[in-house]
Write a structure and sequence with these properties.
With about 70 residues, the protein is mostly helical. It contains three helices and no strands.
Length: about 70
């Protein structure tokens, strides 16, 4: 059992030395957190249309504005 423990310890130590691997892991964690909070960031469904709204510039309700289909 101690051999497996040493293998994990060695793997973690090698990972700590690899700056690109650490950066990639942080980016991956950031993307996972964004996906968990996606409903809060984009509360409007992609299939919803409001043709009366038309093309609106960015505002508090539609952060990126709307296209001609609302």
């Amino acid at each position: 059992m101690s051999n497996q423990s040493n293998l994990w310890f060695d793997a973690v130590e090698r990972l700590k030395k690899n700056k690109l691997a650490i950066f990639s892991a942080l980016v991956l964690i950031f993307l996972v957190v964004l996906t968990l909070f996606a409903p809060l960031l984009a509360p409007h469904a992609y299939y919803e249309q409001n043709l009366d709204l038309g093309a609106v510039p960015p505002n508090a309700t539609y952060w990126f504005g709307t296209d001609t289909l609302g």
